[in-house]
Amino acid sequence: MGHHDLRRKLSAALAADHLPQLLLLTGPTGVGKQRLALWLGQLALCTAPTKGEPCGTCSSCRMALELSHPDLHWFFPLPRPKAGELDKQVQELEEALGDALAERRSHPLYGRSDGMSGHFMATAQLVTRRASLTPAIGRRKVIIVGEAERLVPQASSPEAANALLKLFEEPPADTLIVLTAADLSAILPTIVSRAVPVRVTPLRNAEVGEFLNANLSPAPSPADLETRVARASGAIGQGVDPNDDAVRTRAAADALLTAVRRGSGARFERALAQGAFAARGDFTALLDALAERLLETARERLGHPAPVGGLPAAVEHTDAEAAVRALDAVRVARDAAQGNVNPQLILASLGAELSGAL
User: What is the pTM of this model?
Assistant: First the structure.
């Protein structure tokens, strides 16, 4: 939907063989960066483009639209693989990616990545392997790495991002790579220097409203549509997933960090206040928000801009290494929350881990 001027420029550059091999699409969360990257991938693989647009009917277009084209590789944040060996991690990630793509085929209006998901070393390995492949049915292949800012935090070092630097510096001649990021400053400077940044600007309110009215089910009421469009601020994803509980959950995560700082009494009081049979839903949302706050803390300590609204006072003296240790503890807690474990016990254990880390 929309972005017509930008699509015309990208299409013209592709037709003239002037399109850079490494693009970095930046713009507000939910504005359509990954969808635009998929459109560009479809156009690059289309066998009969018409007036600068994919034809939509050739076999390449149909496979691209179904997320099944063998030369269109889309990577987005997923949970860290649990296997110990890197080769097994890559295999686990490939299976998880296949499942996630199947889910997005069924439910195209997907939500935001949770706070524990990211691009890990296994992602870098899989991206590199697929970049080395010969195109299966066409003359080129397209690799999309969505939310590329999540390449950065890797146990206090940018391992996954660095593992891709050689590929980004000199992609195979038959490969187009498109990265997306909401915040250009969140990408390693060594990656930014190799890419051509492209700004994806907000859409008009009329375009957002048209999309939401046509694609939400059930269709929103006029009042709900007006509220969603205003909240979206030109980013369809913000209107599709308005995340009404985000502020409340973020505040709960900050309160949990404060309780950890106040000592064992406050930690246990917070654990006992947690619903005993709510390991899914609100509880996992709390853990995701907690992971996001720790991720923001690590990034800020490594020199990136502070998040809007700043960091909670409870992490004022926390360094990047401590934040990453705490993030690992949250990851373990979130895994436990998916099983038949009392959330109060999980939170009591997590509180002790966070106290030691922070």
Answer: 0.72
